[in-house]
Write a structure and sequence with these properties.
The protein is an alpha/beta fold. The protein is built from ten helices and 15 strands. α2 crosses α3.
């Protein structure tokens, strides 16, 4: 169903998932396009970002932000066009990054909008990828927490994803030996041949842990964590003294409803942190580094203009396909940054 400028489609959270989400947890609603009040902006969504953190917001447990309420629109970053403005800083036709969520239209008071201009308008969807939250996460997590040095070994989980692909390429720019971890031979081949990783290993392989050890002969200095589970278990014994582990996500456990079966690995983890003096730091990019977005955007824009980066997008046409695409992303079916193209507008 194409976008209609007289109708606002909204995908809301219909129920909270128990384990993996299903399409029954979402509901597509239609209604009137909201009318802006004095000082407000009406935004029309063109691109919608789908990201793993959204699974956490579907659950009711405590987190760094309140969960999505039942019958509330699913939250998300978007690239949108200003349809109407009663705000002095924005004009009709401006392209902006917003947080409109899974819907066609949204109102804004102008706060937390980022106006797109210059070269990024050639690829506005990049503002949700390598020049947006995923790239920002990769940049700050690796450089501020990981602090890679030339010659060090950097291991990257989810290596072909929106964050991991940028982490590995920045690490190569910094002169590191980079080993990626991904699911499947095609993704591993892409990481080596297109992204420039030194090696990429398939975590589904039966000999994954031994292969990781073999390809990290000098141990691991920086491990960029976004997965958890068996991948982390294979990495931990290989960490070098004073190694650094930035943690931006734990997608392997997002759908878990019970503690993992098997032996308790917490004592081993704690002992390794102590003996090797590891730095393990979780971070929420908007809350911990929001004030440094300009620093990231300036440097990353320069690198992108110099063609230093390869960035792959996995886009699906149509807002109504957001639930099934999101579910597939959590199952590892995507290849690159996952986007929904809500409308066909071009700058």
């Amino acid at each position: 169903m194409p976008q209609d400028k007289q109708t606002n489609r909204r995908i809301v959270l219909a129920s909270r998932p128990h384990g993996a989400p299903t399409e029954a947890n979402f509901r597509l609603e239609t209604g009137h396009v909201p009318t802006p009040a004095a000082g407000q902006i009406l935004l029309r969504t063109v691109w919608l970002s789908l990201d793993p953190y959204m699974r956490g917001r579907m659950s009711e447990g405590p987190s760094y932000v309140p969960p999505v309420a039942i019958n509330e629109v699913m939250g998300a970053g978007t690239v949108a066009i200003v349809e109407h403005s009663d705000h002095p800083d924005y004009a009709e036709g401006d392209w902006v990054v917003s947080h409109s969520g899974w819907q066609d239209f949204a109102l804004s008071d102008g706060k937390d909008l980022f106006k797109l201009s210059g070269p990024v308008l050639k690829h506005p969807s990049w503002a949700l990828g390598m020049l947006g939250m995923p790239g920002f996460t990769a940049y700050m997590g690796l450089l501020d927490i990981g602090q890679p040095q030339p010659g060090e070994t950097v291991v990257v989980a989810a290596a072909t994803g929106a964050v991991g692909s940028i982490v590995g390429q920045i690490a190569k720019l910094k002169g590191c030996y980079v080993v990626g971890i991904a699911g499947g031979a095609d993704k591993c081949r892409y990481a080596e041949e297109s992204l420039g990783f030194d090696r990429c290993l398939d975590h589904r392989a039966g000999d994954f842990a031994e292969s990781l050890r073999r390809h990290c002969p000098e141990g691991i200095d920086v491990y960029f964590e976004s997965v958890g589970g068996k991948v982390f278990s294979a990495v931990l014994p290989l960490m070098n003294t004073k190694g650094r582990i930035p943690v931006c996500g734990l997608i392997a456990d997002y759908n878990s409803t019970e503690p993992a079966a098997g032996p308790n690995q917490l004592p081993q983890f704690q002992g390794t942190i102590l003996r090797k003096r590891l730095r393990v730091q979780g971070f929420i990019i908007t809350q911990d580094y929001g004030h440094r977005f300009g620093e990231f955007f300036s440097q990353m824009s320069q690198w992108v203009a110099e063609d230093r980066f390869v960035f792959r997008e996995d886009s699906v046409e149509g807002l109504d396909h957001a639930p099934e695409t999101f579910i597939g992303m959590l199952e590892g079916k995507n290849f690159g940054k996952v986007l929904i193209r809500v409308a066909g507008d071009q700058p």
